[in-house]
Amino acid sequence: QVQLVESGGGLVQAGGSLRLSCAASGNIFSIITMGWYRQAPGKQRELVAEILSGGSTNYADSVKGRFTISRDNAKNTVYLQMNSLKPEDTAEYYCNTVSHNSAWETRWYWGQGTQVTVSS
């Protein structure tokens, strides 16, 4: 089993900042990607940002220049620094990892979600 434990969500005013953290543990042999997705009410879950094992990153166009994803490989932890937050960033944020387990099977794992609410 793999566990993803998220923290750092909350309520913030527009223009403010939040930092999300996600620690992965369990049967993870090799992490391919770690990232963050979000889902607002009535909308599909979308990729916010991801960081690959080699360190390269991908961002949704809507967050480029405002959000920064980083990773501590030793701790299997990924962070999302969110600056200049907008009301449209309000959503449930989910940590995700695509990893190989000890049997070298590729698996997707999700955290339980953390709410980010940005007031105008």
Number of strands: 11
Helix content: under 10%
Q: Which band does the percent of strand residues land in?
A: over 45%
**Shape category:** elongated
Q: Ends: how far apart?
A: 40 Å
Q: Can you put this structure into words, describing what you see?
A:
- The chain has 120 residues and is an all-beta fold.
- 0% of the residues lie in helices and 60% in strands.
- The chain contains no helices and 11 strands.
- The chain has strands spanning 2-7, 10-13, 18-26, 30-39, 46-52, 57-59, 67-72, 77-82, 91-100, 106-110, 114-119.
- Strands 2, 4, 5, 6, 9, 10 and 11 form a 7-stranded mixed β-sheet that branches. A 4-stranded antiparallel β-sheet has the order 1-3-8-7, with no helix packed on it.
- Strand 9 (91-100) and strand 10 (106-110) form a beta hairpin.
What's the gist of this structure?
The protein has 120 residues and is an all-beta fold.
Q: What attributes characterize this protein structure?
A:
elongated, mainly beta, 120 residues, 4-stranded antiparallel beta sheet, 11 strands
